[in-house]
Amino acid sequence: MYSIYHFFYSLVKKKELFKTVRKLDRFPFDKKLLSCKNEGVFPDLAIRLNKDRKIFTGGELIELKDSDSYTVSSFNSTIPSRSKRIEDFITGEKSIIKLQMENAGNDISSLPVRDVFYLVRGKRNHHIKVCLVYGSFFETISIENLISQSFSQVLDERLKESGKEISDELKETLLSVFSQQQNFSRVRSVEKASVKLRFRIMTEVKSEGNILNLNKYPEIKDDTLNFVLPCHNENEEKEIKQKAVLVFGQTDPPQFSVFRIKHHFNGHFLVFQIPL
Predict the structure, then answer these.
(1) Are 135 and 80 in contact (CB under 8 A)?
(2) How many CB atoms sit inside 10 A of residue 55's CB?
(3) Taking the model in full, what pTM does it have?
(4) Which of 26, 65, 82, 217 could staple 135 via S-S, CB 3.0–4.6 A?
């Protein structure tokens, strides 16, 4: 059986290595759980799919975020999200990710939308925090809305500086055109230009979304490993804990601290915490 729960349990078994491994991508992840492993390309890791998906679907995507401070490192090119369509990052028959997943025995198209998790490690004053956190911790509004509103700010600033005005209808049209991240990832070739141009989006986490921030999330203690899942009601909490018991057991590994934290923009999350 494969799932993000099983992946977290595999991290717990080797948790002391988080203090010594120099780069997070060098951590000895359990290869039996993975359908692919990449370096510098999203996703860094992907969980294998299950054939029986009554309880666990598997297939989760994981991006590694390593930092020498208690700030989540910036997201280059790929805006953090709670889920991604498989077609957005697997392009072409010779895609390395596609080949790895197929070699792992996965029918890729059988689960076209995948949950995204981020394995975040931060260091400060000889202490570390490690969090395996669901993407909705960072995606509190849709990516399209984020891009559109950001361009709206740019447009408003330029119109104010130039003293020009445009109709609300034209503004809405322009912002809708520039709301898709894919528009920026393509290389643009301009006639008679000796260079090509590609815009890249870099995403930085605000303090309210920085799970390593002691002032915003004091419950995430130094030298701990944390599993962080959205939990908006009692039914969700019950389901999460039932799945955790199936994978972690009740006494092995040592007892977790289980509690809720309140995201500043996106409701409650349930945390499984264990000392490193």
Answers:
(1) yes
(2) 14
(3) 0.91
(4) 82
